[in-house]
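Technical annex B. To support the medicinal chemistry partners, we prepared a structural model of the target in complex with acetyl coenzyme *A, based solely on the information shown next.
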Amino acid sequence: MYNSKIIGLGYYVPENVVTNDDLSKVMDTSDAWIQERTGIKERRHVVKGDGDTTTSMGVKAAKVAIERAGIDKDDIDFIIFATLSPDYYFPGPGVLVQRDLGIKTVGALDVRNQCSGFVYGISVADQYIKSGMYKNILVVGSELHSHGLDMSTRGRGVSVIFGDGAGAAVLSREENLEKGILSTHLHSEGQHAEELSLIAPGMGKRWVNDIIEDNDPNDESYYPYMNGQFVFKNAVVRFSQVILEGLETNNLTPTDIDLLVPHQANLRISQFIQKKFGLQDDQVFNNIMKYGNTTAASIPIALTEAWEAGKVKEGDLLVLAAFGSGFTWGSAIIKW
Ligand code: ACO
């Protein structure tokens, strides 16, 4: 029995900055509304045609993480890729990363758990490492949202929130069982699947030929839908529960937290959690102001930035927590 620890972190975001004022030129919104409701000031959007995809951004983040881990790409035993915006309907981006990084023919698994995707991914990696099956696992979270958003006023409740980017982590075997990932906690409630969803194209209700045949300018089925207030209310409850669950499992309390890195869904959600657990500003890492909600990429981007800023120190107790479409939610308790 082993633990797993994060030995390398990296992120990549496209250069193109889209401010709230930029959005207000194409839809009826304002910098004041977006900042007040979400905390977001700007986000990154891939410029169409510049070659960046969910996979290529993931590969760029992965290269940084592997280099920082100080291992060779061929030391990686398994790849896990979390996204809701894959390059292809199939195959998933895990195998594309294997190909593009030139890694030998190791297994590649795709995780479809949206904003919780990275926490689900490291949980899977952790189990493989704990059992001794694999030693080094690459976990990537990457999203290219911008090409699939409704950038008209009709889509403003969703489109202003999401941004593009990628983050990656290398998890490795740790023999000291008091260090590394202490536990992970995963949940789902499919009853609310459609409250935050993108229904088409899918084999369930509408495939591409249905969309083409209908040729309906009012068709919103291929844009993301979010029942914002319902999602918000569930998010604050589930975030709190799953953080407490993780702490209690390890006989810890909120006062033991050195740094909480929450999924960057909405600054108001992070602030609610911070207040609930009595944490100081420097105990909760937020970067949603710069990147918006990058879904599966948001935790690894935030964690990398926190680490680069020296906010993650040896011996610190870190909590990662996420909630999103599915609904799915999860947490990871890490002794750095
Ligand atoms: N600009 C200006 N006005 C807007 C915008 C916009 N971008 N978007 C909506 N509005 C308007 C609405 O039309 C509405 O107007 P009305 O009162 O005249 O009908 C009004 O603002 C209020 O709209 P609400 O949707 O009620 O706004 P709310 O305060 O709930 O904020 C938000 C919306 C930011 C989306 C919030 O509900 C939220 O953050 N929800 C949670 C998001 C989340 O956590 N997602 C999970 C992760 S995502 C994932 O897993 C993929």
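Notes passed to the chemistry partners:
Residues 29, 33-34, 37-38, 114-115, 156-157, 160-161, 196, 228-229, 231-232, 235, 265-266, 269, 293, 295, 324-325 surround acetyl coenzyme *A (CB under 6 Å).
The CA atoms of residues 188 and 328 lie 4 Å apart.
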